[in-house]
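To the wet lab folks,

You asked to see what we're planning to order before we commit. Fair enough. Below is the target structure as tokens, and below that is the sequence we designed to fit it. If anything looks off to you, flag it before the synthesis order goes out.
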């Protein structure tokens, strides 16, 4: 099955992409200062992550003087939706009934009132999508 949106591969790629969404655009050095330096990474690691994100077509690169400026190519909400779908697919697997029952049990053990909230949310979604 082919994904419509490629996903960042792990926490570091996601962190770099998130900074780009916040900044709008930035050089590898600017991004490294915001992500790499606090994480104790070397500059080349940040540059390599940007290259991988570019290869996945999640960011674009253009020349500005002697440096490259990177910009997000895919809107944040589209990546977030793809990440959520991927997580649900991995959590529920091919036969989701048992996993859903376990999830409902976990929600109930955290706070039984969350089940009421979940039921209301499900009903709202059903009404807004015409009952399907």
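Sequence we intend to order:
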């Amino acid at each position: 099955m082919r994904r419509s949106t490629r996903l960042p591969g792990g926490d570091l790629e996601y962190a770099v992409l998130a900074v780009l969404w916040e900044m709008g655009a930035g050089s590898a050095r600017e991004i490294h200062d915001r992500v790499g330096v606090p994480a104790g990474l070397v500059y080349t690691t940040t540059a390599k992550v940007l290259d991988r994100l570019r290869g996945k077509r999640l960011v674009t690169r253009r020349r500005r003087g002697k440096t490259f400026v990177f910009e997000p190519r895919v809107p944040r909400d589209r990546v977030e939706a793809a990440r959520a779908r991927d997580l649900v697919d991995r959590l529920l697997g091919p036969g989701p009934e048992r996993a859903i029952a376990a999830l409902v049990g976990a929600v109930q053990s955290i706070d039984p009132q969350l089940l009421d909230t979940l039921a209301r949310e499900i009903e709202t979604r059903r009404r807004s999508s015409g009952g399907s």
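Structural context that might help your review: Helices lie at 11-23, 28-39, 43-55, 76-92, 96-110, 113-128. Strands lie at 26-27, 59-64, 67-72.

Thanks,
Computational group
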